């Protein structure tokens, strides 16, 4: 499986396909073409100086007579952990704060209204180790921990909504840990938090050792720039998880993730995109980049030899629209900022065409699911 040396699917297609074929392949693989955004040259200079990729795209919606366009710019950030995993905890967190601060500065110059960082962005993705210390020391309060205060500063300074996925320690309720995303309004106020609803038990992703399935349901956050929700990583494999955010009114669903090539790379371009189509909303898939090596070897009951790393986090963050179109992905191998301009009017416009909200048989599913979860349920299979 390719590591950092293989940049991206798009780059490979562009390098190898004749132009006419490329156009058709992109039409089928990516849907209606996204427009390239003109971002300030200073932003590209800062990105190049800071050694991260910067890309900008825009989705179009039809003009309406009764509503003005509802234009929003979202920023997706993917990054490596800059320091080795055995560096003291506070040093690692501080280095990540500095990295994200620099990328957010550039996002601000690109007019980003809502920025979202990757899953558990303040730490290496150490859950594969199943060790407690030092990894649990990365956990912090979702109300007033150092990272939340840092994000509040960013939000106020840049008039930007900040979605900050962290490892939460809920000191008021038994000191327990959660995989949480905190949504901070552009005013700097904490709007609220949401917790990862589905916890993986697959390969090295043994996160249930640290935290349980979220208990906050499917909250949606009304921001100045639209209604947003956060479906954290493994939740993207669960269509009903996306559905519930959409039923609660989400227009943009962020999917901050941490996942590796051998496990999920072929699913990645499909799942968030399919969710955008099925739920008439925008989805934003974000993945971390690179390899993280841990001091001690671990195994995960999957027949693999003891090892010290997860494999390759393949980046490839992208945005998908309700009409099924999507942006190209960021690269597989570099830190990056993807700026995407959305017109939220597209959600209703596509709903009016395809009508999935109208034709969804929610009552019937609810009735049948209510039966199916009962212990004495017997599946409705017709036999000869
Ligand atoms: N972080 C996380 O939930 N990863 C699980 C693997 C995947 O969903 O691809």
From TrEMBL:
The protein's enzyme class: hydrolase
Protein known as: Beta-ureidopropionase
Pathway(s) this gene product operates in, as recorded in its UniProt entry: Amino-acid biosynthesis; beta-alanine biosynthesis
Molecular function (Gene Ontology), one example: beta-ureidopropionase activity
Signal sequence range: none
GO cellular component terms given for this protein: cytoplasm
InterPro entries (alphabetical): Aliph_Amidase/BUP, C-N_Hydrolase, C-N_Hydrolase_sf
One biological process term in Gene Ontology: beta-alanine biosynthetic process via 3-ureidopropionate
Quaternary context: Homodimer, homotetramer, homooctamer; can also form higher homooligomers.
Domain CN hydrolase, chain residue ranges per copy: 72-344
Entries under CDD domains matching the protein: ML_beta-AS
UniProt xrefs under Gene3D superfamilies: Carbon-nitrogen hydrolase
Keywords recorded for this protein, A-Z: Cytoplasm, Hydrolase, Phosphoprotein
Subcellular location: Cytoplasm
Protein family membership: Belongs to the carbon-nitrogen hydrolase superfamily. BUP family.
Record function comment: Catalyzes a late step in pyrimidine degradation. Converts N-carbamoyl-beta-alanine (3-ureidopropanoate) into beta-alanine, ammonia and carbon dioxide. Likewise, converts N-carbamoyl-beta-aminoisobutyrate (3-ureidoisobutyrate) into beta-aminoisobutyrate, ammonia and carbon dioxide.
EC number: 3.5.1.6
């Amino acid at each position: 499986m390719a590591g950092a040396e293989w940049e991206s699917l798009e780059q490979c297609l562009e390098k190898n396909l004749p132009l006419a074929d490329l156009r058709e392949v992109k039409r089928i693989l990516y849907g209606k073409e996204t427009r390239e955004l003109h971002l300030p040259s200073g932003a590209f200079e800062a990105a190049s100086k800071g050694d991260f990729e910067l890309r900008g795209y825009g989705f179009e919606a039809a003009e309406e007579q009764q509503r003005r366009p509802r234009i929003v710019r979202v920023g997706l950030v993917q990054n490596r952990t800059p320091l080795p995993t055995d560096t003291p905890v506070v040093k690692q967190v501080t280095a990540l704060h500095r990295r994200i601060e620099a990328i957010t500065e550039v996002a601000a110059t690109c007019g980003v209204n809502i920025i979202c960082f990757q899953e558990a962005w303040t730490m290496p993705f150490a859950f594969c180790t199943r060790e407690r210390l030092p990894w649990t020391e990365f956990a912090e309060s979702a109300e007033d921990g150092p990272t939340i205060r840092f994000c509040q500063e960013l939000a106020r300074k840049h008039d930007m909504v900040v979605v900050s996925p962290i490892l939460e320690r809920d000191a008021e309720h038994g000191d327990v840990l959660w995989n949480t995303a905190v949504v901070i309004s552009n005013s700097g106020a904490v709007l609220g938090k949401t917790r990862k609803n589905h916890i993986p038990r697959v390969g090295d992703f043994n996160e249930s050792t640290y935290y349980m399935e979220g208990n906050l349901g499917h909250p949606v956050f009304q921001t100045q720039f639209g209604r947003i929700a956060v479906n954290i990583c493994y939740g993207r494999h669960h269509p009903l998880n996306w559905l519930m955010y959409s039923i609660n009114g989400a227009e943009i669903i962020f999917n901050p993730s941490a996942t590796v090539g051998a496990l999920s790379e072929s699913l990645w371009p499909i799942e968030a995109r399919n969710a955008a189509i099925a739920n008439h909303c925008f989805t934003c898939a974000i993945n971390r980049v690179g390899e993280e090596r841990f001091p001690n070897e671990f195994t995960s009951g999957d027949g693999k030899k003891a090892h010290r790393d997860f494999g390759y986090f393949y980046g490839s963050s992208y945005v998908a629209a309700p009409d099924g179109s999507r942006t190209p992905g960021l690269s597989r191998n570099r830190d990056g900022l993807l700026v995407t301009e959305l017109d939220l009017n597209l959600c209703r416009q596509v709903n009016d065409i395809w009508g999935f909200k109208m034709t969804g048989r929610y009552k019937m599913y609810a009735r049948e699911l209510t039966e199916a979860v009962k212990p004495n349920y017997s599946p409705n299979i017709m036999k000869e």
